[in-house]
Amino acid sequence: MPKGAFPNTPSVESFIVQPLDHFNRRNNGTYNQRYWINEQYWNYPDGPVFLYIGGEGSLSEFSVLSGEHVELAQTHRALLVSLEHRFYGSSINIDGLTLENIKFLSSQQALADLASFHMFISQKYNLTRQNTWICFGGSYPGSLSAWFRLKFPHLVYAAVASSAPVRAELDFTGYNKVVAWSLADPVIGGSEKCLDAVKEGFHAVDSLIQKGNVTQLEKDFYSCGSLQGSDDYTEFVGNLADIFMGAVQYNGMSPISNVQNICQLMTTKDNSAYEGLRSVNKMYMNSMGLSCISNSHAKSVADLSSTKLSLIGVGERQWYYQTCTEFGYYQTCEDPSCPFSPLITLKSQLDLCFQIFQVPTESVLQSVQFTNEFYGADFPKSSRIIFVNGDVDPWHALSVLKNQSRSEIAIFINGTSHCANMNPSSTSDPLSLQEARKEIATQVATWLKSAQSEMGG
Question: By the 8 A CB rule, do 400 and 408 touch?
Fold first, then answer.
């Protein structure tokens, strides 16, 4: 069993009452926010506090039981706490997804929740300035980790921000540029031959769509229903491209999320590139236990429009709302470097913002610009933050990849994907990941030492 994974002591799950709107005290609405605590390793009463930040999905008890931050907590005898993001998982009111209430979902409100949680934990355990706080997060919570340090430096001494896309971007063409590069990367089992086959396969799909021969696609790719017009065609190619995007982003984390496996299927001798796409689609369906793939745009719109709560998994409606009102991040394929279909347009994704949330395109663009103005994009001008990225991960294109100052440090890991450093360490980890983990551990130890010397400890 890897060190830091699944200790026997159970974590404590509980809820804190939070204001719906931290920035308007005349609004007395509240919601219950879920958190976990693991005291097992804590050197009471002066040990540090490691805060794990939740994001665009439900959090579980493993947020204080397993992972890189837990291994570091064992070493430094830290109190482990984690906070689920407002409006995701169980941290939401029954009417939270309505248009009227989803407006209280934002990264700014989430950071205010963290400040309020900091005060709650400090009071609960009678913490003092002797207790050094370090926060951890990956992906969107990686950005939150950096931003919590940036905006609340008096509360958190340092931050580890893994795979953090701190630069908001409306048309995120860079995502599929990295996907294309990774599909051709021999370090992870890709090849130029594989990338060419993917391009050729999607070109064949586009040709069938242009010729109106969509019944062939429905049959060959096991569509649940018939493709009804251009919106469904976009849905279809988007679903197919998502398999490849996911394989790159989460490379090595499951059999389907594996560039080597996908490239083997795409380059099988005597198979056309189109046949290769069919094989990849079938492998995806088998791994997910699906008998068919839903390509109905109308169903997707209905799903995103639904205000019914789902307390597990990713909050699809909530996250789409945040892309419309803060981040953009739309992964498009209108750039010639994209290996998929040019039907995956910016317009098709922006239209949903208006259709579902009544947010017009101009407003999305302004929100993205404001987010970068508010947080500093990929030049945040903070201190004591480690930005960790893997070169295989498409999200690295929006992160901090070079040291910004002596204490804003960038670690770029060769051959690793999204948030790879956050998993429990394993003997099978590539050397580049092992070295990165050592560098992170050394930096965390240095921070804790400097915090103590500042306190005269």
Answer: yes
Residue 135 half-sphere exposure, CB side, CA atoms within 13 Å?
Answer: 31
Confidence band, pLDDT 50/70/90 cuts, at residue 7: very low
CATH code given to domain 12-167+377-454: 3.40.50.1820
- Tell me how far apart the alpha carbons of residues 353 and 359 are, in angstroms, rounded to a whole number: 5
pLDDT at residue number 10: 61
Q: Is residue 436 within 8 Å of residue 411, measured between CB atoms? A: yes
Q: Which of 113, 171, 393, 429 is catalytic?
A: 393
Q: Annotated catalytic residue: which of 399, 418, 425, 429?
A: 418
The pLDDT of residue 2 is above 80: no
CA distances from 121 to 36, 125, 153, 247 (A): 11, 6, 17, 39
What does the domain layout of the chain look like in residue ranges? 12-167+377-454, 170-361
Q: Is 393 a catalytic residue?
A: yes
> 10-14, 118-122, 151-155, 186-190: lowest mean pLDDT where?
10-14
> Is 418 annotated in the active site?
yes
Phi and psi at residue 216, to the nearest 5°: -60, -45
Catalytic site includes residue 139: yes
Of the residues 63, 106, 139, 162, which is catalytic? 139
Helix residue ranges, H only, 293-430: 297-305, 316-322, 346-357, 361-375
| H/E segment holding residue 195 | helix 192-210
Check residues 346 and 3 and name the one with the higher pLDDT: 346
Superfamily designation of domain 170-361: Serine carboxypeptidase S28, SKS domain (1.20.120.980)
